[in-house]
Write a structure and sequence with these properties.
5 copies of one chain form a homopentamer. The first copy, chain A, has 96 residues and is mainly β. Chain A has a single domain (2-13, 20-94), classed as OB fold (Dihydrolipoamide Acetyltransferase, E2P) (Beta Barrel). Chain A has strands at 2-11, 24-29, 41-45, 54-59, 76-87, 90-94. A 5-stranded mixed barrel of chain A has the order 1-2-3-5-4. In chain A, a hairpin with a 2-residue loop joins strand 5 and strand 6 (90-94).
């Protein structure tokens, strides 16, 4: 799963009916020290994540395995909010 | 999901029968400020998108979750037209 | 779906039995102006495409949605031969 | 499957209920000589892997084929701990 | 499907039970002239391929469509041994 930071929100009025009710967030891949490294893309939110939070993202068919995204045309879902990351024995990220 | 801009259309006469009736659009990945960054590729349209619009694209098996693309050999579908994108508290795109 | 040009053919005698009867073509990703940009890879053919033609390719599980590729271990299928591509209001490719 | 080294751990309290009980490890792609080459990402653990070990990772829908990850929103799973890698007739990695 | 060369073997003792009995080979993507271009990764073997051979690899869920890999957590399978590749009318590879 990707480590990513929520950086914004997307609004779409004309959309496939299976998308209705889904919250769409703009995210960017981040490192274990919370530095942004990737281009912005959009993920569906299944956990109530907010802008600024570091999250976990599942992609592909795995993005449709949450109750909120089942059978919907989404290929990226936020399914966890990260509290701590530890790499090589050091705490590299702690949610503030 | 990718943020992308519709840049053109594709016509294919000799094609798998499961593609018949699908509208095929040429798209390129774009940033949250509507700058083109990716190479052109083709996506099926499920929402009536037009050239110049900023859209959301689902890829892989998720591209087959709309009524228009179910069980068809397509790996990219436009399933939303973007109205607004907001990043870091600023409106970076608004549909004109 | 990828825009690609058929550049050659692949022959494999020792192969999984589920591949028997499939035509395997070598393709490279191309732009909307028919310039080659990608590395060669192999796609199954479902539409009778020939060397030199510009085609559409579906990848991943979507490559198994044609009658010719159903339940087979292929992750790329040619499912359309391109006649015309139009980008930004200009015809950038027409099949000759 | 990717060759990867386990470099750390991830903690997520607020997460999709289908993730509960899964151990989440931070991994980076590695070469056959155990050099790190990729960016950190997160994989579910199905085999009791520990930090420092070289492992095999299955991605996409294949990541949901273990008993521990079935039907869960995970797109990467550690499903083997590597003992030895041999390339061009030379042992390039042996677990110590 | 990827064109790849088998360059070695991988041994994993502690692994998901669904992997038992599978032969794991180290492969690298190659061109149509048999030059190595990609990083090493691991593929399950369904056709008895050996080190040095040029092979075809199916990835993703398509890697689970052979009898040997069905329902197993593998995302890459060797499902053909290449005999000949012809590009632009020239034979660029022939198995010796």
């Amino acid at each position: 799963m990707l480590i990513a930071r929520v950086v914004g929100t997307a609004v779409s009025t004309i959309k496939d009916e299976k998308l209705s009710g889904l919250k769409l967030l703009i995210v960017r891949e981040a490192t274990h020290t919370n530095e942004l490294v990737g281009k912005p893309f959009v993920a569906a939110d299944s956990v109530g994540a907010g802008v600024g939070e570091l999250v976990l993202i599942a992609q592909g068919s795995s993005a449709r395995q949450t109750d909120k995204t089942k059978d919907r045309p989404v290929d990226a879902v936020i399914m966890g909010i990260l509290d701590e990351l530890e790499v090589d024995g050091e705490l590299t990220f702690r949610k503030s």
